[in-house]
Specification:
The structure holds two protein chains of two kinds. Chain A is an alpha/beta fold. Chain A has one domain (about 5-65, about 80-150): Rossmann fold, CATH 3.40.50. In chain A, about 30% of the residues lie in helices and about 20% in strands. Chain A has helices at about 5-15, 40-50, 80-85, 100-105, 135-145, 150; strands at about 20, 30-35, 50-55, 65-70, 90-95, 125. A six-stranded mixed beta sheet of chain A has the order 3-1-2-4-5-6. In chain A, helix 2 (about 40-50) packs across helix 5 (about 135-145). Chain B is of the alpha+beta class. Chain B has a single domain, classed as Alpha-Beta Plaits, CATH 3.30.70.3270. In chain B, a hairpin with an 8-residue loop joins strand 2 (about 35-45) and strand 3. Chain B starts with 11 loop residues before the first strand and ends with a helix. Classes of the chains: A alpha/beta, B alpha+beta. The interface of A and B includes residues 104 and 130 of A.
C-alpha cells in the first residue's frame, strides 16, 4: 500500500500541508490537501493567491479537520485514502474536489478508476468542476463551516 | 454564492430552453456523456398552412456536473446558441445526486 501524506505523516516529514482560510480567521476549519491528480493544482492556486494560509503552531485548536481529496482515484489507491481518512483526527469531514472525486469524471467508464471517492470514504461536500476554481474550494470550505456554525466558529 | 469570474474561465454553462431544438448534437459530442435530453415531437398546423409540421418539444435536459469537464464542446457545437458560458461557478453540494441539473437549474 502506498502511504499518502496525512497529518500523521507530516509530523515525520515536517511538510506543512494543512491550511486555514485567509479571509475568515475565525473559522477554525483546517483543510488537509490530499491531491491525487490535476485538480490538486487548483488547491495550489488557492495557496499562491493567498486564499489559504498554512496552519501555524500558535493557531487555535481546529474544530474540524477537512480532508480535501482532489484528483482521480484508482482502485489501487483506495486503501491508501481510506488509511489517510482513518488517520485524520476527529471531528472530521471529507470534500470531493472535482469531477473525478465525485463520479470518476472523464474516466467513469475505465476499469481502473473508482467512480467517486464516496465508495471508499464518507463525503460531506461535492465540488463540481474539471478542475473546480480556487473560489469554489473556498466557498465549499465556508459552506461546511456554516453548516456546523455553532461548533466551528470560535 | 461564488463571485463572478471572467467568462472564459470555466464558470458554468447555461441553457436557453426555448432555443433548444433537441437536435442531440451536444449529447453526442460530449466527450464524457454528461448531457441527457428527452423530447417528443408534436404536430403543429400554423394558420393557413397546407399541412402540419413536426416540431420537437424538449421534455428534459440534464447536465451531470459530477462528470462535466467544462471543455465547452457543447457550447461550440450548438447550432442555435441554446448553450452558453456564464460567469458564476457552481458551488459544492451535499449529495452526489444534486450535481445533476435540470432545465430550471440550468436556465437560472
Amino acid at each position: 500500500m502506498i502511504e499518502l501524506p496525512t497529518p500523521a505523516y507530516q509530523s515525520v516529514s515536517g511538510g506543512a500541508r494543512q491550511y486555514r482560510l485567509a479571509s475568515h480567521p475565525e473559522i477554525r476549519v483546517v483543510a488537509t490537501d490530499l491531491g491525487l491528480a490535476c485538480c490538486a493544482v487548483e488547491f495550489a492556486a488557492a495557496l499562491t493567491r493567498g486564499l489559504l494560509l498554512p496552519v501555524a503552531d500558535a493557531d487555535p485548536v481546529p474544530t474540524l479537520h477537512l480532508l480535501v481529496v482532489s484528483g482521480t482515484l484508482t482502485h489501487a489507491l483506495r486503501p491508501s485514502i481510506e488509511a489517510a481518512w482513518e488517520r485524520l483526527p476527529e471531528p472530521r469531514a471529507a470534500m470531493a474536489f472535482g469531477a473525478c472525486t465525485a463520479s470518476g469524471g472523464p474516466y467513469w467508464d475505465s476499469y481502473s478508476v473508482a467512480q467517486g471517492i464516496d465508495e471508499t470514504i464518507p463525503v460531506q461536500v461535492y465540488v463540481p468542476g474539471c478542475p473546480p476554481r480556487p473560489e469554489a474550494l473556498i466557498a465549499a470550505i465556508l459552506s461546511i463551516a456554516e453548516g456546523a456554525a455553532d461548533v466551528i466558529r470560535s | 454564492m461564488i463571485e463572478d469570474i471572467a467568462i472564459e474561465s470555466r464558470g458554468t454553462i447555461k441553457l436557453s430552453a426555448p432555443d433548444c431544438t433537441s437536435c442531440m448534437l451536444c449529447v453526442r459530442e460530449c466527450p464524457v456523456w454528461c448531457i441527457e435530453i428527452d423530447s417528443h415531437t408534436e404536430q403543429v398546423t400554423p394558420e393557413g398552412a397546407r399541412r402540419p409540421r413536426s416540431v420537437a418539444v424538449l421534455d428534459a435536459f440534464t447536465i451531470d456536473w459530477g462528470l462535466c469537464m467544462y471543455c465547452g464542446i457543447c457550447v461550440e457545437v450548438c447550432p442555435f446558441d441554446a448553450l452558453a458560458w456564464a460567469p458564476s461557478p457552481r458551488g459544492g453540494v451535499g449529495e452526489a445526486e444534486q450535481l445533476v441539473a435540470g432545465i430550471e437549474d440550468l436556465s437560472g
